[in-house]
Amino acid sequence: MKKLLIILLVLSFNFLHAGEYGDAFLELGVGGRNMAMGNSISALDTNNTCFYANCAGLASIRSLNLDLMYTSHFGLAYYNHLGLAFPLTKTISGAINWLRFGVNNIYFRPDYFITSDYSPEERRQKILINQGKGFGSFSDTEDGFYFSLAKMNKIQVYLGWLYENLELEIPVGVSVKVLHKQLNNNIAWGIGTDVSTRCRFHLGTLMGIDQLGYFSYGLAISDFTETNIYWETKNSDKIDINIKNSIAYEQPLPIWDMMLNISAEINNRYDEEVRFGGELQVKKSLFIRVGYNGYQTIMGCGLAAKLFKMSTKLDYALFRHELGNSHRIGVSLCL
């Protein structure tokens, strides 16, 4: 029954409200950190996982990064990620990422009561034989392939002879995404473009208070060209433009080499839905996170260490729902 509910949600998102939900599986976000902070870190994320929300953050990547993610949704659906990010020049970085969402073994359940070919006795016999198992099964599989580029730009702003120059980091990024869907034997393809930028600066330099940290503002426009998804059945879905505004603040703390990160995001797709999250870093090794994704509180944690001379990070997030718990695990390797 739970599996039936999931597929009904997928169908209703993709077909009834295609302009808003044609890419509904992408709204699940990417990475354990992002999920644990309420999918609100568009202005904060500078790892490979930022390709999804604000790919301008890729410009901060200076070494080869490999990212993997596994998500179990209520023990019935899966959502996975595999990605590679790499520097191309001193200021330009690229990334290739693959997302897959799927629900397997969804039973066909014919409605004998609206089929006039069966008598009441025949319907009864069919139901008894079937025993609620359905006649065969099918799967729903949805893929997203992202190809991203980002460039870092730095600008020095003169604040007067009494102050230091204020350095602005203004990266810009673009992602081309190819979407593939297969529902039973029906296949669809689509292609779209996301563009984004952000501005990050040291608030302490601007305010003249050295103890202050960094402030960031992010702007991302998803489906900039209005993504169209074409089905082999001659039907099509259109994904409308979505504008995401986000802010973040990174505050160093004087004890245990700690850092407090706060983020918030608002987009125009879901009635100005507001998401926000917080993260406490301890010695860049332990991460404690909490977030709100617009309708529920989410928690998570992370660990970072050297493994086989590689910088390795493990992230976990837990999302509770009436259908069951959703667990997400992400691994990032700096090669």
Written account of the structure:
The protein has helices at 2-16, 18-21, 32-36, 120-130, 203-207, and strands spanning 65-73, 77-87, 92-107, 137-151, 154-157, 166-169, 172-183, 186-202, 214-222, 227-231, 236-239, 242-253, 258-267, 273-282, 286-292, 297-307, 310-321, 324-334. With 335 residues, it is mainly beta. The protein has a single domain (2-334), classed as Beta Barrel (Porin). A 14-stranded antiparallel β-barrel has the order 1-2-3-4-7-8-9-12-13-14-15-16-17-18. It has a two-stranded antiparallel sheet with strand order 5-6. The longest helix is centred in the first third of the chain and has 15 residues, at 2-16. 35% of the residues are buried.
Layout of helices and strands:
Elements (H helix, E strand, L loop, with lengths): L1 H15 L1 H4 L10 H5 L28 E9 L3 E11 L4 E16 L12 H11 L6 E15 L2 E4 L8 E4 L2 E12 L2 E17 H5 L6 E9 L4 E5 L4 E4 L2 E12 L4 E10 L5 E10 L3 E7 L4 E11 L2 E12 L2 E11 L1
Antiparallel strand pairs: 1-2, 1-18, 2-3, 3-4, 4-7, 5-6, 7-8, 8-9, 8-10, 9-12, 10-11, 12-13, 13-14, 14-15, 15-16, 16-17, 17-18
Highlighted features:
single chain; 335 residues; mainly beta; Porin; 14-stranded antiparallel barrel; two-stranded antiparallel sheet; 53% strand; disordered N terminus
CATH class: Mainly Beta
Largest sheet: 14 strands, antiparallel, barrel
Helix content: 10-25%
Strand order of the largest sheet: 1-2-3-4-7-8-9-12-13-14-15-16-17-18
From the N-terminal CA to the C-terminal CA, the straight-line distance is 44 Å
CATH architecture level-2 label: Beta Barrel
How would you describe the shape? elongated
Amount of beta strand: over 45%
Low-confidence stretches: 1-19
Q: What's the total number of strands?
A: 18
Helix-strand category: mainly beta
Number of helices: 5
Query: What's the name of the CATH homologous superfamily?
Result: monomeric porin ompg
Radius of gyration: 23 Å
